[in-house]
Amino acid sequence: GAVVSQHPSRVICKSGTSVKIECRSLDFQATTMFWYRQFPKQSLMLMATSNEGSKATYEQGVEKDKFLINHASLTLSTLTVTSAHPEDSSFYICSAAGTRAYNEQFFGPGTRLTVL
Amino acid sequence: AQSVSQHNHHVILSEAASLELGCNYSYGGTVNLFWYVQYPGQHLQLLLKYFSGDPLVKGIKGFEAEFIKSKFSFNLRKPSVQWSDTAEYFCAVNERTGTASKLTFGTGTRLQVTL
What we know:
The structure holds 2 protein chains of 2 kinds.
Chain A: E1 4-7, E2 10-13, E3 19-25, E4 32-38, E5 44-51, E6 57-58, E7 67-73, E8 76-81, E9 90-97, E10 106-107, E11 111-115
Parallel strand pairs in A: 2-11
Antiparallel strand pairs in A: 1-3, 3-8, 4-5, 4-9, 5-6, 7-8, 9-10, 9-11
Chain B: E1 3-5, E2 10-14, E3 19-21, E4 24-26, E5 31-38, E6 45-50, E7 56-58, E8 64-68, E9 73-78, E10 87-95, E11 104-105, E12 109-114
Parallel strand pairs in B: 2-12
Antiparallel strand pairs in B: 1-4, 3-9, 5-6, 5-10, 7-8, 8-9, 10-11, 10-12
Protein backbone atom coordinates (compact mmCIF):
# COMPACT_ATOMS: atom_id res chain seq x y z
CA GLY A 1 0.00 0.00 0.00
CA ALA A 2 0.86 3.65 -0.18
CA VAL A 3 3.15 4.94 2.55
CA VAL A 4 2.87 8.28 4.29
CA SER A 5 5.43 9.45 6.80
CA GLN A 6 5.38 12.23 9.35
CA HIS A 7 8.23 13.98 11.06
CA PRO A 8 8.76 14.42 13.89
CA SER A 9 6.84 11.70 15.66
CA ARG A 10 7.00 13.59 18.93
CA VAL A 11 7.82 17.17 19.76
CA ILE A 12 7.86 19.12 22.99
CA CYS A 13 8.10 22.86 22.81
CA LYS A 14 7.76 25.90 25.00
CA SER A 15 4.71 28.10 24.90
CA GLY A 16 5.05 30.84 22.32
CA THR A 17 7.32 28.98 19.95
CA SER A 18 6.42 27.61 16.52
CA VAL A 19 6.57 24.00 15.48
CA LYS A 20 6.67 22.57 11.97
CA ILE A 21 5.37 19.10 11.16
CA GLU A 22 6.14 17.44 7.85
CA CYS A 23 3.99 14.97 5.99
CA ARG A 24 5.44 13.06 3.06
CA SER A 25 3.99 10.60 0.60
CA LEU A 26 6.84 8.20 -0.04
CA ASP A 27 5.75 6.20 -3.05
CA PHE A 28 3.01 8.15 -4.75
CA GLN A 29 2.12 11.66 -5.74
CA ALA A 30 -0.33 13.25 -3.34
CA THR A 31 -2.42 15.85 -5.07
CA THR A 32 -4.41 16.36 -1.89
CA MET A 33 -3.33 16.18 1.71
CA PHE A 34 -5.46 16.45 4.80
CA TRP A 35 -4.54 17.47 8.32
CA TYR A 36 -6.42 16.09 11.30
CA ARG A 37 -6.25 16.63 15.00
CA GLN A 38 -7.04 13.98 17.56
CA PHE A 39 -7.52 14.69 21.25
CA PRO A 40 -7.00 11.85 23.73
CA LYS A 41 -9.67 9.20 23.46
CA GLN A 42 -11.54 11.16 20.81
CA SER A 43 -12.08 10.96 17.11
CA LEU A 44 -10.17 12.66 14.33
CA MET A 45 -11.28 16.15 13.45
CA LEU A 46 -10.37 17.52 10.06
CA MET A 47 -8.47 20.78 10.30
CA ALA A 48 -7.77 21.57 6.67
CA THR A 49 -7.48 20.24 3.16
CA SER A 50 -4.58 21.23 0.96
CA ASN A 51 -4.11 20.76 -2.73
CA GLU A 52 -0.67 20.96 -4.25
CA GLY A 53 0.19 24.45 -5.33
CA SER A 54 -2.86 26.17 -3.89
CA LYS A 55 -3.99 27.58 -0.57
CA ALA A 56 -5.39 25.25 2.04
CA THR A 57 -9.08 25.12 2.82
CA TYR A 58 -9.67 25.30 6.54
CA GLU A 59 -12.58 23.83 8.44
CA GLN A 60 -14.83 26.08 10.42
CA GLY A 61 -13.28 27.09 13.70
CA VAL A 62 -9.69 26.39 12.67
CA GLU A 63 -7.49 29.48 12.73
CA LYS A 64 -5.59 29.64 9.47
CA ASP A 65 -3.08 32.14 10.85
CA LYS A 66 -2.26 29.81 13.69
CA PHE A 67 -2.08 26.59 11.72
CA LEU A 68 -0.12 27.37 8.58
CA ILE A 69 -0.27 24.73 5.90
CA ASN A 70 1.99 24.55 2.89
CA HIS A 71 1.70 21.96 0.13
CA ALA A 72 4.51 23.00 -2.14
CA SER A 73 5.11 19.69 -3.88
CA LEU A 74 3.27 16.49 -4.73
CA THR A 75 5.05 14.63 -1.95
CA LEU A 76 5.30 17.12 0.89
CA SER A 77 2.93 19.12 3.03
CA THR A 78 3.84 20.96 6.19
CA LEU A 79 1.78 22.13 9.14
CA THR A 80 3.25 24.91 11.25
CA VAL A 81 1.70 25.59 14.62
CA THR A 82 2.58 29.21 15.30
CA SER A 83 2.90 30.69 18.78
CA ALA A 84 1.95 27.38 20.31
CA HIS A 85 0.05 27.26 23.60
CA PRO A 86 -0.66 24.33 25.92
CA GLU A 87 -4.16 23.97 24.48
CA ASP A 88 -2.55 23.17 21.12
CA SER A 89 -1.12 20.00 22.61
CA SER A 90 -2.60 17.18 20.62
CA PHE A 91 -1.98 14.40 18.15
CA TYR A 92 -1.72 15.72 14.61
CA ILE A 93 -2.28 13.29 11.77
CA CYS A 94 -1.93 13.84 8.07
CA SER A 95 -3.33 11.83 5.21
CA ALA A 96 -2.70 11.89 1.51
CA ALA A 97 -4.71 11.06 -1.56
CA GLY A 98 -3.72 11.36 -5.13
CA THR A 99 -2.82 9.78 -8.35
CA ARG A 100 -2.82 6.27 -6.99
CA ALA A 101 -6.40 6.36 -5.67
CA TYR A 102 -8.26 9.57 -5.08
CA ASN A 103 -11.07 7.82 -3.27
CA GLU A 104 -8.88 6.63 -0.45
CA GLN A 105 -6.68 8.47 1.98
CA PHE A 106 -3.48 7.01 3.33
CA PHE A 107 -2.61 8.05 6.84
CA GLY A 108 0.64 9.03 8.41
CA PRO A 109 1.65 7.75 11.84
CA GLY A 110 0.91 11.07 13.54
CA THR A 111 2.86 13.63 15.53
CA ARG A 112 2.40 14.07 19.26
CA LEU A 113 2.79 17.75 20.13
CA THR A 114 3.21 18.78 23.74
CA VAL A 115 3.38 22.47 24.54
CA LEU A 116 4.73 23.31 27.97
CA ALA B 1 -23.05 18.19 5.49
CA GLN B 2 -22.08 14.64 6.23
CA SER B 3 -22.27 13.15 9.68
CA VAL B 4 -21.33 9.73 11.00
CA SER B 5 -22.79 8.09 14.09
CA GLN B 6 -21.29 5.21 15.99
CA HIS B 7 -23.76 4.15 18.60
CA ASN B 8 -21.51 1.98 20.70
CA HIS B 9 -18.92 4.01 22.54
CA HIS B 10 -17.41 1.24 24.61
CA VAL B 11 -17.88 -2.45 24.03
CA ILE B 12 -16.52 -5.20 26.24
CA LEU B 13 -16.50 -8.75 24.93
CA SER B 14 -14.98 -12.04 25.93
CA GLU B 15 -12.67 -13.77 23.53
CA ALA B 16 -14.49 -15.78 20.87
CA ALA B 17 -17.63 -13.68 21.18
CA SER B 18 -19.13 -12.21 18.03
CA LEU B 19 -18.82 -8.52 17.32
CA GLU B 20 -21.03 -6.04 15.57
CA LEU B 21 -20.33 -2.32 15.68
CA GLY B 22 -22.91 0.04 14.31
CA CYS B 23 -22.23 2.89 11.93
CA ASN B 24 -24.81 5.16 10.35
CA TYR B 25 -24.17 8.13 8.16
CA SER B 26 -26.21 10.96 6.82
CA TYR B 27 -25.56 12.17 3.32
CA GLY B 28 -27.80 12.27 0.33
CA GLY B 29 -25.23 11.56 -2.35
CA THR B 30 -22.93 8.72 -3.27
CA VAL B 31 -20.36 7.87 -0.65
CA ASN B 32 -17.30 5.78 0.03
CA LEU B 33 -17.27 4.02 3.38
CA PHE B 34 -14.37 2.97 5.57
CA TRP B 35 -13.57 1.30 8.84
CA TYR B 36 -10.27 2.11 10.51
CA VAL B 37 -8.67 0.60 13.59
CA GLN B 38 -6.30 2.28 15.99
CA TYR B 39 -4.46 -0.05 18.35
CA PRO B 40 -3.20 1.44 21.61
CA GLY B 41 -0.34 3.79 20.91
CA GLN B 42 -0.42 3.16 17.17
CA HIS B 43 -1.64 4.99 14.12
CA LEU B 44 -4.75 4.46 12.06
CA GLN B 45 -4.93 1.38 9.90
CA LEU B 46 -7.51 0.64 7.25
CA LEU B 47 -9.62 -2.42 8.05
CA LEU B 48 -11.84 -2.36 5.02
CA LYS B 49 -13.52 -0.08 2.53
CA TYR B 50 -16.54 0.07 0.29
CA PHE B 51 -16.61 1.98 -2.96
CA SER B 52 -19.13 0.09 -5.07
CA GLY B 53 -20.24 -3.41 -6.02
CA ASP B 54 -20.91 -6.19 -3.53
CA PRO B 55 -22.25 -4.51 -0.39
CA LEU B 56 -20.62 -7.14 1.80
CA VAL B 57 -16.96 -6.35 2.02
CA LYS B 58 -14.25 -8.34 3.66
CA GLY B 59 -11.25 -6.77 5.26
CA ILE B 60 -8.16 -7.77 7.12
CA LYS B 61 -8.02 -9.87 10.28
CA GLY B 62 -11.38 -11.53 9.66
CA PHE B 63 -13.46 -8.36 9.73
CA GLU B 64 -16.30 -7.68 7.36
CA ALA B 65 -18.88 -4.97 6.90
CA GLU B 66 -22.18 -4.69 5.11
CA PHE B 67 -23.38 -1.58 3.34
CA ILE B 68 -27.15 -1.25 3.54
CA LYS B 69 -28.03 1.74 1.45
CA SER B 70 -31.65 1.95 2.57
CA LYS B 71 -30.55 2.17 6.18
CA PHE B 72 -27.52 4.40 5.56
CA SER B 73 -25.55 1.88 7.55
CA PHE B 74 -22.16 0.22 7.32
CA ASN B 75 -21.87 -2.06 10.33
CA LEU B 76 -18.65 -3.86 11.16
CA ARG B 77 -18.70 -7.52 12.12
CA LYS B 78 -16.38 -10.26 13.22
CA PRO B 79 -17.63 -13.72 14.13
CA SER B 80 -15.06 -14.41 16.84
CA VAL B 81 -12.96 -11.69 18.43
CA GLN B 82 -9.50 -12.13 19.85
CA TRP B 83 -7.76 -10.34 22.70
CA SER B 84 -5.56 -8.66 20.10
CA ASP B 85 -8.61 -6.94 18.63
CA THR B 86 -8.68 -4.60 21.61
CA ALA B 87 -8.53 -1.19 19.96
CA GLU B 88 -10.46 1.87 18.92
CA TYR B 89 -12.58 1.49 15.79
CA PHE B 90 -13.60 4.38 13.59
CA CYS B 91 -16.15 4.47 10.83
CA ALA B 92 -15.59 7.13 8.17
CA VAL B 93 -17.34 8.42 5.10
CA ASN B 94 -16.41 10.62 2.21
CA GLU B 95 -18.27 11.87 -0.79
CA ARG B 96 -17.53 10.07 -4.01
CA THR B 97 -16.38 12.69 -6.44
CA GLY B 98 -13.84 12.86 -9.16
CA THR B 99 -11.23 14.14 -6.76
CA ALA B 100 -10.10 13.45 -3.22
CA SER B 101 -12.71 14.52 -0.71
CA LYS B 102 -12.52 14.95 3.02
CA LEU B 103 -13.34 12.15 5.40
CA THR B 104 -15.87 12.52 8.15
CA PHE B 105 -15.18 10.25 11.10
CA GLY B 106 -17.50 8.82 13.66
CA THR B 107 -16.75 9.30 17.31
CA GLY B 108 -15.19 5.89 17.58
CA THR B 109 -15.92 2.71 19.49
CA ARG B 110 -13.53 1.37 22.05
CA LEU B 111 -13.48 -2.40 21.97
CA GLN B 112 -12.08 -4.23 24.94
CA VAL B 113 -11.68 -7.98 24.61
CA THR B 114 -11.18 -9.92 27.81
CA LEU B 115 -9.56 -13.31 28.13
